[in-house]
What we know:
The complex is a heterodimer of chains A (69) and B (243).
Chain A: H1 2-8, H2 12-18, H3 22-47, H4 51-56, H5 58-64
Chain B: H1 2-48, H2 63-67, H3 84-111, H4 118-139, H5 152-175, H6 179-195, H7 209-241
Helix pairs in contact in B: 1-3, 1-7, 3-7, 4-5, 4-7, 5-6
Amino acid sequence: MSSLLQRTLPTNEAISLIGGSTTVRDRLLPAFFAAMLGCLIVGMTGFAHIEAVHNAAHDTRHANGFPCH
Amino acid sequence: MQTFRSIVFTALAAGLLVGLVTTLVHQVGVVPLILEAETYEAAEAVPAAAHSHSHDQGHGHDTAAASSPEHHHDAKAWTPQDGWERTLFTALADVLTSTGFALLMSSAFVLVRRRLSWREGLLWGLAGFTVFSLAPSLGLPPELPGMAAGDLMARQMWWIGTAMATALGLTLIASRRSGRTIALAAILLAAPHIIGAPAAPAEESGVPMALWSEFVIVALASSLVSWLALGSITAAFHRRLFA
């Protein structure tokens, strides 16, 4: 009986598979994209090779020990 | 979308606050030493001007260009005026950098499903300091303008690789208890330093050693202050926005 129930009633996992995993949608993807945005910003202020960006962020780069020049 | 928005709001608020704290610490501690180093750099640049043609090639593609004092080498590129304009752009860069790191930290809080107190945030700040400041500085200590250094691209790659390996190593130590995991973590933490950072060319720079050693200590101490502020303040805002 219980195995029949398991086969016929949708489990939580089955529901989340149907609707796309809530863990992936609600936590992993937003955290991933926010982290990528963070890397992009730090990459721009600390690592970009564009001369004007380097000059603007010059003292910040040296103070943070980012490789400079 | 709600989660993403909350992470961004957390990071914007924390980044602004921590960026202002960092700006204060940098202006008081680090910037005076950078300005002093630039006077030596400028003095050295005068005899070096004879072979300035190598500077036009941009950043360190060969040893000669990398080792020469190539600061401000491109006269065409925009540079903020010394004084308030330079300070303003340093403040802007400090706020942006803090916001970027706060985005990473708030994302990590979401991934580990934790709403931390500001005290626990201090520990995360310590981890951030270890990953992004302490570990890279073991191979590439913070440099002053005018100092000889290896190829820029190679140093950036080593820096990023070291930060990633250290972050992964610390994550393993924090999340798993098995002996095998700890051994793997130890390998990850040690590997960048066994491989070694790109070496600086053996060349005298005009910057005095005493000034540089003071700078390294002040820069690392400022980083520690910024990271502790970042950890605790990001944790506090994250807790509020993810109530």
